[in-house]
Write a structure and sequence with these properties.
Layout: H1 2-18, E1 23-24, E2 26-28, E3 39-43, E4 49-56, E5 60-76, E6 79-94, H2 109-117, E7 129-139, E8 154-162, E9 165-177, E10 181-191, H3 205-208, E11 210-223
Parallel strand pairs: 1-10
Antiparallel strand pairs: 2-9, 3-5, 3-11, 4-5, 4-11, 5-6, 6-7, 7-8, 8-9, 9-10, 10-11
Length: 224
Amino acid sequence: MKKLTILAFAAIAMLVSCNKSGDKANTTAEQEVAEQKGQVFTVEADKSTVKWTGYHKGGLNPRYGVIKTDGTVAVENDAVTGGKFNLDLNSLVTDQAAVDPVTSGGKTSADLDAHLKSADFFDVEKFPTSVFEITSVAAFDATKDTSVLEGATNVISGNLTIKDKTVNVTFPAKVTMTAEEVHIESKFTINRQDWGLTYGTEGDAKDWMISQEIDVELNIQAKK
């Protein structure tokens, strides 16, 4: 019976891991930030969000929510040249549907909000803002690039700073624009440990129970 239970758990974990919800982002060292050439659009904070999803080991018990963002996007000759997005970590909110008090020992989504904002993770008292600055934007080439995002148009690279560490992240995106608006969508996965986001000390069992992968979904709306 014990062997069957282990095999069943392994099968579930494999199925979850095969259910790819975001593109795996490529990461490198910090790069030079691109100059914002051309017309600068202002990110609409009330219409733009960064959705995050974290998991327990094996992709189980997803926890998800949103973070508000503002900033700018620059466009020249119908192409994005640069941009900067400020993520307000104090605005982090876990979706109530993601945490069931019945199965979480009475814990609520508000409890998770407080936990994530504490020094255990983002330490918002010291680091209230995370920043993403575009370093390059290239055309999406369907002959060599792949994406879970239908209609991807570009590959965006940028420096993502969380707490006191900056890592360059590259991911596919769908960019649409009019004379008055720019819309950027993307779904990608990052490894939280690239930014030193661990729960407790290295090797702590509490941290081991949490997946290293975090799914990020950008929905950026910018206007003249």
